[in-house]
Amino acid sequence: MNFMDEEVIEMTKHARQKKRLENIENQLLHTDIVKAIKDGQLMIEDETIEFKEMSFYEDQIRMYMPATFDVMEPELMDIKYPSTRRPDYIYTSESTSINVTLKIMEQQIKAEELEDFTEAMRNILQKTQPTTKMLDIGMNEVNDVQIGYFDFISPALDNKIYNLMFLFRVGENVTMGSVNCLKKEMNIWKPIAYGMMESISVENKLLDGEGVV
Fold first, then answer.
1. What's the pTM value of the predicted model, to 2 decimals?
2. Residues in Cβ contact with 127 at an 8 Å cutoff, skipping those fewer than 6 apart
3. Which of 111, 161, 165 is nearest to 136 (CA)?
4. What are the structural domain ranges in the chain?
């Protein structure tokens, strides 16, 4: 096999991958992702991603995520989330490239302050990580829960990471959640991340200090 043959094979492989991604994007575009997630199954080409509803903080927060996601191993947490103020919950895919986090913060705000708080968090991130590429920012109401969100692409070692961050109130405390994946996977996982965010429900009740830092 000569150099030209290898070039043709590589170009053909790249074209097939591009076509596959386009087909998946088109399929997701015409799928009610939130409904599929809540129904427990999302079809992507001929693959089915199973979803299940998870509960956090003594059932105060409920959210759907892929059934194969599991709690991240402590050793990997130390690498990916080295801060002592890391999220209370960190779930990851089998490949560990897709992660879901949740944390109730000590910050307390009023309902009408959530939008400004979301924008402030985004601005802080942009100032502290100037190489981060900001994407969308907005507010959404799902299951009677007001959610502020923004997404961005950040550098990490040899890869770039797509992140969706979302904030909502549990009682008066801000809760921060996130879904992140490799940038090369974002065309598939960005709409799924938004669907997972839109599956959140909250039951406000008193906690015995759990999760508040």
1. 0.84
2. none
3. 165
4. 52-202
